[in-house]
Design goal:
Helix 11 packs antiparallel against helix 16 and helix 11 packs parallel to helix 17. The chain has a single domain, classed as Up-down Bundle (Growth Hormone, Chain: A), CATH 1.20.1250. With about 425 residues, it is mainly alpha-helical. This is MFS transporter. It is a multi-pass membrane protein.
């Protein structure tokens, strides 16, 4: 039985396609990815822009709504919670809906939520709108990952997911800074109007590019999806998703005090350093996705090891401004470069439950971000001071080596079993 967006390679047994890829025996990649993959990347660009654009508008929002800045920050927190809960929940609720309809409905709710924020005057209403928007974001991201994998095919699924993820990374480089700049020019509500309009345009593109599902799409059931999640390898991948993101963003969330207090970088130059991190993350997502189709386990282990070493170097060399700037950019490259490969592995290991597996990776990434940033905040107030978040990030990132190495060992044993 095939399900929505199934990307399991039928010609290979469980884990066989993965091992063949490691040996360089995967089928030849298509020269170009389908247009729909680029359209889905536009959607993820909008999703990540709205998640973090509030951070650059907090003072304006707080002043207009007559709340404190920490209270206004709840608009970010409630969005993260909505993503954690909403991705798997909405994946199940929309399981029997056509892929194209699900994506368009998600963008419609996304646009409506932004219109409410753009015109609303009640802080409670804005919180509710952000939560509902996050549910739609989780649904879009989970289904978009599967749709991109299916469109690209097994030989290029990681590359396609790298491009879709790059849309989100580009949000940190372009979308968030532009949103903050526009908010200062036309008021904080302006970016939300713009995002609503862009979401409607993206829905129109989805309608034109996402193909119809196969005739057996409606046979999928919630029970079959949940049953397929018994794979131990899948849960190892989800653990890696949480720790890799948690480690990197534990340090990144509080990088400004480190840059100004330890490295001696002027506060006005901090945004440029953050842009460097974003460019590194964008490049890492593209490169990691491309290499991950051929050697997924090499990429995930190398990325985890690289992020750990870089975070440790930041702890030790944070007194040197130029070294810190370079290390932060490299952290974006290595720290987030394996994400598309992890998503691809989760979809593959889930077998009959690709949509739910994709949704759970979204939840795992956001859970790691929430937990890592919370622990890092406590470390910032400790005797470690500004370097505390980087220390926390180093420890969490190092934990990623455990599940990634275990997955590689399991796959090697599964490949060797038929030969014995």
């Amino acid at each position: 039985m095939r399900t929505r967006g199934e990307v399991v390679e039928r010609s290979a047994g469980p884990g066989e396609a993965d091992t063949l890829a490691e040996r360089g025996q995967s089928p030849a990649r298509p020269a170009r990815l389908p247009l729909v993959v680029y359209v889905l990347a536009v959607g993820t660009f909008l999703m990540l822009t709205t998640e973090f654009v509030v951070a650059g508008l907090l003072p304006e929002i707080a002043g207009d709504l007559r709340v404190s800045v920490p209270q206004a920050g709840l608009l970010i927190t409630v969005f993260a919670v909505g993503m954690i809960i909403g991705a798997p929940l909405m994946a199940m609720l929309t399981l029997r809906l056509p892929t194209r309809l699900t994506l368009m409905l998600a963008l419609g709710v996304f646009a409506a939520g932004h219109l409410i924020v753009a015109v609303g005057s009640s802080f409670a209403l804005l919180l509710a709108a952000r939560f509902v928007t996050a549910l739609a974001t989780g649904a879009f991201w989970a289904v978009a990952n599967v749709a991109a994998s299916r469109a690209a095919g097994p030989a290029a699924s990681s590359r396609a997911l790298g491009l879709v993820g790059a849309g989100g990374m580009l949000a940190n480089v372009v979308g968030v800074p532009l949103g903050a700049f526009a908010g200062q020019l036309v008021g904080w509500r302006g970016p939300f109007w713009a995002l609503a309009v862009l979401a409607v345009a993206a829905a129109a593109l989805i309608a034109r590019t996402v193909p119809h599902d196969g005739p057996d799409h409606g046979t999928v059931s919630v029970r079959s999806e949940v049953t397929a999640l018994r794979s131990g390898r899948l849960w190892l991948v989800l653990a890696a998703c949480a720790t890799t993101t948690g480690g990197v963003l534990a340090a990144y969330s509080y990088i400004a005090p480190l840059l100004t207090g330890r490295a001696g970088i002027a506060a006005g130059l901090v945004p440029l350093v953050l842009v460097g991190f974003g460019i590194g993350a964008l490049a890492g997502s593209l490169v990691g996705g491309r290499l991950g189709d051929a050697r997924p386990h090499t990429v995930t282990i190398a990325a985890a090891a690289g992020a750990t070493v870089l975070l440790l170097a930041i702890c030790l060399l944070s007194g040197d401004a130029w070294a810190t700037v370079v290390l932060v950019a490299l952290l974006g490259f290595f720290g987030l470069g394996a994400n598309p490969v992890l998503i691809s592995l989760s979809v593959r290991f889930a077998g009959q439950a690709p949509t739910l597996a994709s949704a759970l990776t979204v939840s795992a990434f956001n859970l790691g971000t929430a937990a890592g940033s919370w622990i890092a905040g406590r470390a910032l107030d400790s005797s470690l001071e500004a370097v505390g978040p980087a220390v926390v990030g180093t420890a969490i990132a190092a934990l990623t080596l455990i599940p990634t190495i275990m997955i590689a060992v399991i796959q090697r044993r599964r490949a060797a079993a038929p030969a014995r």
